[in-house]
Design a protein that fits this description.
mainly alpha; 1 helix; 59% helix; elongated
């Protein structure tokens, strides 16, 4: 059993490369959205 199957994601295939890539893209996309939103709110960047 890999280390990735021991945490919150306790299901078979939790450490598959496809799922890891999708999770990474969602996480990085949400961080980028928050940074862009914060800059637009603070400085009025269009």
């Amino acid at each position: 059993m890999s280390d990735l199957n021991r945490g919150i994601m306790k299901f078979q295939g939790a450490d598959s490369p496809t799922l890891v890539i999708i999770s990474t893209m969602l996480l990085l996309g949400s961080i980028a959205f928050l940074i862009i939103w914060a800059l637009q709110s603070a400085y009025g960047v269009s």
